[in-house]
Automatic annotation (TrEMBL):
Keywords: Glycosyltransferase, Transferase. Residues 12-163 form the Glycosyltransferase subfamily 4-like N-terminal domain. It holds the Pfam family Glyco_trans_1_4. InterPro entries: Glyco_trans_4-like_N (IPR028098). GO terms for molecular function: transferase activity. Belongs to the glycosyltransferase group 1 family. Glycosyltransferase 4 subfamily. This is Glycosyl transferase. It comes from the Bacteria. CDD domains: GT4_AmsD-like (cd03820).
Amino acid sequence: MLAFVLPGLGAGGSEHIVSLLCNHFAAQGWSITLIVFEEPSAPSYYAYHPEVRIVRLGMKSRRRAAATGALAMLRRQRRLRRALKAVRPELVVSFLTRTNILSVLAARSLHIPVIVSERNNPALQTVGPVWSRLRQMTYPHAVGLITMTQGAMDWFRGAMDVKGWVIPNPVPPAGAAPDRRSDGRTIGAVGRLVPQKGFDLLLDAFAHVAQRIPDWKLVIWGEGPERAALERQRDRLGLAGRVSLPGVTERPGDWIPQTDLFVLSSRFEGWGIVVGEAMGAGLPVVSFDCQWGPAEMIGHGRSGLLVPNGDGAALGDAIVALCADPARRAALGQAARERMADFGHDRVLARWQSVITSILDHHRVRAGS
């Protein structure tokens, strides 16, 4: 019996990997429960195996003042503890910092081991002094930490006493993408509309080169709190007819067949999941060389292009160079697809299963001794 714990069931990268893991284990006959803090009516963006039991705790996260925030944290911890006590899993696998902390606290008195997984860049993603201190206190009590990059793991090992494993995100099989529906001149970007994703930098870069590639348009798929600011910036730059922000795609990965050149403009990343998805589908990719992730997937000049992090002029020049060279786009796309074979579903999920089964075996031996 495994229990996965996650804030919600939205369209993010953490939600994606959790759905893959739940479905993988359920298909093998494991008893799987997914616990989320969202309301019972919250829909799931990703599909789940019919044998995956989903428990919604009805406590969606929201910003609060310090005092009320502390009380809310205690309520969330107690409700999670009650859920874990009812489910009685052999192991909890938790995702994302605040949820990880609550999972360790809730499971500890029940003597349930917990794996915590971080999915972002801990050196640059701020969680605030209280949560940072709680992370330092709780993570050493987890049976292990899983990150997507060695850089993230090195940061954690320098900050606290943790045992860990580095497991990258899997890339969807090339055949999983729908038939292409592009006009042949679409630059695509994907992500939550937040400062981390650097879409403001991308708009500036595109504005500087738009006249050099008059037949190309930019589409930014995603939703988030920066939508209004990005739309104002787009209009101020005179790009209303060249840039669209259509929101989240109806189906996962539906942006792929509508894209001819993919761009990652993030200031920092935990991995860069959409880069892997684009490369696995054979799209040419231009990315900021941000910490961490893109450089672990992209071989510069071979399977994509990396430009100095935050250098909008270099990003614009790289976009123009590929827009003007269809043969190079095709070559980079083919090499990208071949590179992503190292991050195939079966290989990555097997690494997760190896870690989980080794921890379960260890704790079963201890429980029997």
